[in-house]
Amino acid sequence: MICMKEFDLIVIGSGSGLEVASAFTQRGKEVAVVESGPLGGTCLNRGCIPSKMLIHHADVAETIRDAEKFHIDADFNEIDFQKIVREVNENVAEDSKRIEKGLKNSEKHTLYRTEANFVEEKVLEVNKAPASGEEVDERITADKILVAAGSRPMIPPIDGLREDTYMTSDEALSLDERPDELVIIGGGYIAAELAHFFGALGTDITIIEAEDSLIAREDKDVKEKFTEIFSERHDVNLGLKATRVEDLDEKVKVVTEDLDGNKEAFAGDKVLLAAGRRPNTDTIDAEAGGLELDDRGFLETDDRLRTSVDGVYALGDIAGNFMFKHSANYEAKVVYQNLLTNDTHKADFTAMPHAIFSSPQVSGVGKTEQELEGSDQEYVSASYDSSDTGMGMALKEEQGFVKVLVDPETEEILGCHIMGPEASSLIHEVLVSMREGRGRIDDIKDTIHIHPALNEVVQRAFNRI
Predict the structure, then answer these.
(1) Average confidence (pLDDT) over 282-304
(2) Nearest CA to 91 among 58, 60, 51, 63?
(3) For 181, which of 58, 91, 412, 415 is 20 to 30 Å away at the CA?
(4) What pLDDT is recorded for position 135?
(5) How do strand 2-12 and strand 123-126 relate by DSSP bridges?
(6) What is the pLDDT, as a whole number, of residue 434?
(7) Which of 109, 196, 234, 451 is catalytic?
(8) Which residues 6+ apart lie within 8 Å of 341 measured at CB?
């Protein structure tokens, strides 16, 4: 028996899409939310929230270890790793349960705690267990559908890779015990953040990266300096591709190969795969719903965040514009506005920032120097070291800097890249200028900065243009 139920809006996923769902119900609309996992999406349960809560513990541990620089004798006696992880995950679970309770208590939300699969355009099959023994094929439909089903860790095709031989960032955030030795395959932002977390808490870190630097997408000066710093702290191996994973008594061995075919092996208690993320378009049978995919498997969307099917929108990781929580939150606003106004709002991704919460922190916005070098755009660059500011000296910060890229004729800000303490916060005055101000260097140069606050380093970098 086929049971069909119709809604005003269906939202697949319970991350940023919930903002649209809740706003829609406030207008008296009937909304279905489909989520098989914990409520709150990737960011709350397996991403930015638990990872940053855990990383702050690493920051505290690093501060204690560095106390000697300030002539303070601080003994580092013990780390209760299990308690740290348990406390963070309990807090996350409470938030997720609170969201679920709110949806269940809402008269306008219908929550499906199940997988959802497209069976045709605008029709989803939800595998809801029937109350009786009768087999029911339950389906839901709506004139408007929002696909916000997120992404998951990518599992690279490595020989010998079995589920019992590796973990992803999902499992790494909920380990019961701290590994003594951790081998990380990958060198992007996930690898950088988790290497900082485990490394600061006492794990020996080995990183295997096929590129010639860590965080390879960052500006060349940032990634070069970052790689240098990480190489001093950890065993960083560049230009190597993991080709095989083997059991080695109580350890796991990773066999690698360079471009010349030379092999090298590394062993650890655990192997962490940090090779990127892939969209969940396959888990919802997106193509069965008539939704077109790009060559990477993400949903194709236009500048209104519409998919190839009229009335179906997409946001967040599965749409592949930017895989950041802040971009997904922005996209949710655009989708909601378009639902109300017959698609009059374009998504404007001008000055979309990002940050890496490692040690050192990294943030960036706009073009990198290598991108500008490969284009016809004229540019000039300038940098300023944090150590040459009053607060930088107070913090004894020796590695941080701000780099600015500017059009020499118009003085338009083309990019800004920061490494060092509070990089994720320092970038914001540049974001305001690029997005809401004139986007010119005078926006920063002519702003009075508090002395000796750390963000003087931003102004001084701009003053060098």
Answers:
(1) 97
(2) 51
(3) 91
(4) 57
(5) unpaired
(6) 98
(7) 451
(8) none
Q: Provide the token pair at 234.
A: 């950890």
Greatest CA span in the chain, whole angstroms? 75
Contact 138/112 with Cβ under 8 angstroms?
no
Q: Residue 288's pLDDT is what?
A: 97
3-state secondary structure of 273: strand
Bridge partners, residue 247, by sequence: 252
Q: Is the dihedral of CA 39, 42, 43, 44 positive or negative?
A: positive
CB 167 within 8 A of CB 142: no
Query: Among all chains, which residue has been given the structure tokens 């595998």?
Result: 127
Closest CA to 308 of 286, 327, 275, 324: 286
CB atoms under 10 Å from CB of 26, counted, come to 9
Cβ count near 239 (within 10 Å):
14
The contacts of residue 263 (CB under 8 Å, 6+ apart) are 243, 255, 256, 257
Confidence grade of residue 452 (pLDDT, cut at 50, 70, 90)? very high
DSSP letter, residue 269: S
Burial (Cβ within 10 Å: 0-12, 13-18, ≥19) of residue 251: middle
The two three-digit tokens of residue 443, written as one number: 């926006």
- Asked if 388 and 461 count as a contact pair (C-beta separation under 8 A), the reply is no
Instruction: Report whether pLDDT(127) > 90.
Output: no
Record the pTM.
0.95
Is 451 one of the annotated active-site residues of the chain? yes
Q: Are 241 and 209 in contact (CB under 8 A)?
A: no
DSSP β-ladder status, 401-406 and 413-419: antiparallel
Contact 6, 141 (CB under 8 A): yes
Q: E strands of 203-305, at which residues?
A: 204-209, 235-238, 241-248, 251-257, 263-268, 270-273, 277-279
Interior angle at CA 418, CA 416 and CA 421, nearest 5: 155
